[in-house]
Write a structure and sequence with these properties.
This protein has six helices and 13 strands. The chain is an alpha+beta fold and 240 residues long. The chain folds into two domains: 179 residues, Jelly Rolls (Sandwich); 45 residues, no CATH class. The strands form two sheets. Strands 1, 2, 4, 5, 6, 8, 11 and 13 form an eight-stranded antiparallel beta sheet that branches. Strands 3-7-12-9-10 form a five-stranded antiparallel beta sheet, with no helix packed on it. Strand 9 and strand 10 form a beta hairpin. The longest helix is centred in the last third of the chain and has 16 residues. The protein is globular.
């Protein structure tokens, strides 16, 4: 019988960093510079961030702005080791931020569609302050991301986070534009790519295709109905 190899949902990469130096840069940041995550329905207790690279270099908002390019923020300028860590990833970066989840905090299950190596945006985590009791739940599996290591989360998977530890968990989170350098690092760590979407769009999956079809039907145009019919045919026969 042929063994089925599942695509990678998370992965520890062969890149690690000095935790004490990471925490020294973290200590240079003022408590007042943390901002609450905008999606308040996605979490319980406190989930906050500090933008290190953001649209327009803003430090007060992580929401995208039409036509604005990503720029380093003034906070990153005074964090030399963060800069060294970030520069170690030989690829273009978009959003970079510190993410803090308070003790007892929960990030509810969700997907970040389009945030995987295959989709072109590779989300990396470098934990700075963490505890064994801090766990990700990724497609039902509980995983701890250890401090100073580089971890990949395929954020298009269903995932949640719970901080059962005694203090805030803080990660450096880097969104990278996928390239050959990244893929080579991933392959060396045992990465397994997912198969191409049978619907021709990675954001359309078996668990949401019915909703997409219903939305297209509601549009009412001929083109939308044709697309809905095509998706329905793929769903009905389990096309490749």
């Amino acid at each position: 019988m042929m063994q089925v190899v599942n695509p990678t949902r998370y992965l520890q990469l062969p890149m690690s960093f000095d935790v004490e130096r990471l925490q020294a840069d973290l200590a240079s940041i003022e408590q007042s510079e943390w901002i609450a995550h905008f999606n308040t329905r996605a979490y319980e207790n406190s989930w906050s961030c500090i933008p290190l690279r953001s649209v327009g270099g803003r430090i007060d908002n992580i929401l995208p702005l039409d036509g604005a390019a990503f720029e380093d923020t003034v906070i990153l300028e005074r964090c030399p080791y963060f800069r060294q860590v970030i520069d170690g990833f030989q690829c273009e970066k978009t959003s970079i931020r510190l993410m803090s989840l308070e003790a007892g905090g929960i990030i509810r299950e969700h997907r970040d569609d389009g945030a995987s190596l295959e989709d072109g945006v590779t989300r990396l985590h470098v934990p700075i302050v963490t505890f064994p009791e801090v766990v990700f739940r990724i497609d039902g599996e509980e995983v701890h991301f250890s401090a100073g290591a580089t971890w990949y989360l395929n954020a298009s998977c269903l995932h949640a986070v719970e901080n059962r530890g005694p203090a805030a968990r803080i990660h450096l989170m880097i969104d990278c534009i996928s390239n050959e350098w990244l893929e080579s690092i991933f392959r060396s760590a045992g990465w397994v790519a997912r198969e191409a979407s049978k619907y021709g769009d990675p954001m359309i999956r078996d668990d949401n295709v019915d909703e997409v079809i219903a939305s297209l039907r509601m549009v009412g145009s001929v083109a939308a109905h044709r697309m809905a019919d095509s998706l329905q045919a793929m769903a009905d026969v389990g096309a490749y």
